[in-house]
Amino acid sequence: MTSIEHAIQNRLDHLPAPLRIRLPSGRLLGPPEAEVEIAFRDMASLMPMASGNLGEVGARIVSGDIGISGSMRALMHVVAALVPDDGQTQKPKPWQRVWWSLTSILRHNRDRDAQQIRFHYDVSDEFYQIWLDPLQVYSCAYFREPDMTLAQAQVAKLDHICRKLDLHPGERFVDIGAGWGGLLLHAAEHYGVDATGITLSQNQFNHVSRLIQTKGLADRVRIQLCDYRDLQPQQPFDKLASVGMFEHVGRANMLRYFQRIHELLRPGGIAMNHGITVTGLDDATVGGHLGDFIEKFIFPGGELMHVSRAIRIASQAGLEMVDTENLRPHYARTLWCWSDNLEARLPEAEAVLQKSMPPERAAQVLRAFRLYLAGCALAFEEGWTSLYQILLTRPDGPPDGQAQPSDLPGAGADYPFRRDYIYHRRP
C-alpha cells in the first residue's frame, strides 16, 4: 500500500460515516457494505482526497475523473465527516483580508456582475423548472406549517415578505433581483402594489415579461433588464425587497449597495434584505475549500459575510434595522427538496441541458448542480451558513401622506414597531 493509500485508509478508519473507495487499479478501501462509493480513475485524483481538499474533489467529480455512487443524502453525511474544523476555516489573516478586498473590487463591476449572473441563471429555464416549484421561486422557502409542500412553503415565503413589508394597495414597490417574478407578481396580485422588478438575467427578463402580459398586469407591473446601480425611478419607492441578490454584490460594493437601497426608498420607507450569510464571525468561508467549488462551477463572484457585518454596513448607509429573522433550517429543507426533485429526474434533466449545450458539458453541469444543491443543504443543516431576513427602514423624516405611519412618537418610518401586524393582517 502506497503512502497516499495509507493516508486515505487512515481517514476512512476514523470516519463516523461509512465510505468505500475504489482505486484506479480496482482495489477497494473501506467497508464493503458502505452505501457511498467514490471511484478514482487515476492516481492524481487521490491527492485532494488525501489532503482534505474537498473543493478539488468536487471539481474532479464534475470533470468525470472521480465517480460517485449512492444517494446524495448519504454522500453528504460522508462530506460532513470529512470537512475540517466543524465546517469553518481558521480566522483570516490580515493579508487575506486585503486580498479579499482587492479581488472583490476586480470581480465586481457592471459587466462582470452581468456575466456572472447569466453564467448561473441563464443555463436553461427548462432545467430549473424540473426541480423548482411551479412559480420557480429560487430562494429559501418558509415552512410555516410542518407538513407544507415545497410549493406551499414558497407561497408562504412570498406572503411572509409582503406582510413584513406591510404592503398596501397603490404603494410603489421594487424587487431588486426579481428572478422569475414570483414575489413581484404575488405582491401585485395579492397586495395591489405598483410593482417594478429588475434582473440581469435575459432568460428571467423574457419569462417575467411574458407573465406580465399573460396576467394582464402591464398597467402596474414592469420588469427591467438593468443593474441595481443604474435603476432611475421617477420617484422613490415606498417599499423595497432584495431576495437572493445580496450574495452577488461583493464585499467591496456592500456599502454602495445599502446606500443605493437608501436612495431608492422615500423617507419612512421599508426594505427587506433576504440573503445568505456565513456563521464565522470573521467572514470565514466553509472549510475544505468547498467555497472554491461554488465559485468555479456555480456562482462566480459570490461573496458572503456574517450577518452582524451586513447590519453594520446597512447602518453606515443610513438605514435602521428594525427586525431580523434567521431562516437557516428552512433553507436546509428547501435545498433538500430541490435536490430530491433533481435526483428523481436525472435523465430528463440531462436531456434538457443537452438542448442548449454539448453532451459532455451538459453532464458536467448536471454533476455540478447535484453536488451544489446537496452540499448547500448540508451547509445550512450543519450551521456553516445561514439565511437572514433583515428588515430595514429609512428613518430620516416623517412618512408622507401616502404612508401608513406608526402611532408611536419618534418612529420616523412606516414600521409599526409591533410584530403582530405580520401575522394578523390578511391580504
TrEMBL record:
The family database entries (Pfam families) matched by this protein are listed as:
CMAS
The record's annotation in InterPro entries points to:
CFA/CMAS, CMAS, SAM-dependent_MTases_sf
Q: Where is this region: Disordered?
A: 396-416
User: For this UniProt entry, which segments traverse the membrane?
Assistant: none
The GO biological-process annotations, alphabetized, read as: lipid biosynthetic process; methylation
Keyword set for this entry? Lipid metabolism, Methyltransferase, S-adenosyl-L-methionine, Transferase
Per its UniProt record, what SUPFAM superfamilies does this chain match?
S-adenosyl-L-methionine-dependent methyltransferases
Q: Which family does it belong to?
A: Belongs to the CFA/CMAS family.
Q: What is this protein called?
A: Methyltransferase domain-containing protein
Organism, by scientific name, is Paracoccus shanxieyensis
